[in-house]
Write a structure and sequence with these properties.
With 337 residues, this protein is α/β, with parallel strands linked by helices. The protein has 13 helices and ten strands. It folds into two domains: 7-221, Spore Coat Polysaccharide Biosynthesis Protein SpsA, Chain A, CATH 3.90.550.10; 249-333, no CATH class. Helices cover 48% and strands 18% of the residues. Strand 2, helix 2 and strand 3 (62-67) form a beta-alpha-beta unit. Helix 5 packs antiparallel against helix 7, helix 5 (144-153) packs parallel to helix 10 (250-270) and helix 7 runs parallel beside helix 9 (229-246).
Amino acid sequence: MASKILVSVIVPVYNAEKYLNKCLMSICQQTLKDIEIIAINDGSQDQSLSILQNFAQIDARITILNIENSGVSNARNLGIEHAKGQYVTFVDADDWLELTMLEELFQACRLTGSNIAKCDLFWQEADGSRQLHYPSDAYCTYSAIDCLSELFTEIGEKHFGFATCKLYEKSFLNLHRLRFDVSMSFAEDTVFLTRAVIKNQSICYVPRQLYYYNVTNQSSLTTRAMINLRHNYDLLYKKLLKELQNGNVYEEVRNSFLNYQFEGLLIILHHCPAKPLAIKVAIQSFLEAYPDILKVKLINRNRKQFVFLKLIKMNWLTLCSALIYMNVKKPKVIWPL
C-alpha cells in the first residue's frame, strides 16, 4: 500500500457477480496507482464476496467491508468514513472505468483548486455503448447555479445528477458533513449532489467520456423505485426544496426546478394505469401539491417533447379525456407547443 493515498475508490457491492470482475479490473489497472479500493459487500447472496476476496489476495490496495444489507447510501457513507485518500470517488459495482479516469480527474482538481471534478460517461446498453452527443470539448468550471440548472434539466446529457463519474475532496465532504441520506431509496444522488454543489459553489468539468454507466442492470433498480412512485417524488421534492432554500439559491434555479418537477409528473403519468379516471386523479393530485409547475417555462423542449409525445402515443384518447374532464388547457399547461 502506498504511504500516501491520493484517491479512495468506494464500491458498494450487492449481488454483482455478473459485472464485478470487469469493474474491479478497471479500477485496479488505473494509471493513477496511489489509490485504495474500499469494497462494501452489502449483504450479497451470490458469489460477489468470493470475487472480492480473490481480488484482495492479488491487490493489497483492496479493503473489504462485509455488512448486512442496508442499501447503497449506507454503504457509500461507510466507505467515506473509512477512506484515507485525499479524494474519494464512487463506482457502482456493475459499471467500469476508463483506465485514465482517476488520474484525469485528480489532475483537474489539482490544477483548478476545485473540490469536485466530473467527467462525461458512456451509456452502456446490452447491444453496446450508445453514443451521447456532448456539446462541449472544453475544460471549464461550472458555477453552483449552472450546475443545479444542468442537474435539474440535463441539457446536453452531462449527467450532473450522478454521484458517480466525479471526484470529491475528502476534507470538503467532512467539513460540510456531506453524506448520503439513508432514508431515501430513490434519487438519493440528486440530493447529495445538490448539497455538494451549493457548498462548493462550482464543479470542474473534464469533457471526456471516462465512466461506463451500465444501463442494462439498472432496469431492476428502476422497477423497484416505481413502487410508491408518487411518495418517492414527494420526499425528493421536499428534501431538494429544503436544500435550495437553505442555500439561498432557490429563486435563481426556480424554473429549472419546476422543469424537474414537470418531468416527474410525466414519469408518474407514464406509469399510471391507462384509465381516464386514474390519469385525471394523478394529474389533479400532482397539480394540487405543486401548483407552481403551471408557471413553468420549459427549457429542455426536445427531450420533454419526446417523452410527452411518447405518452400521448400510448394513451392519446385516455389522456385527452382526462385533461378535458379536468378543464386543463393542455397547450398552455402540459405542453406549450
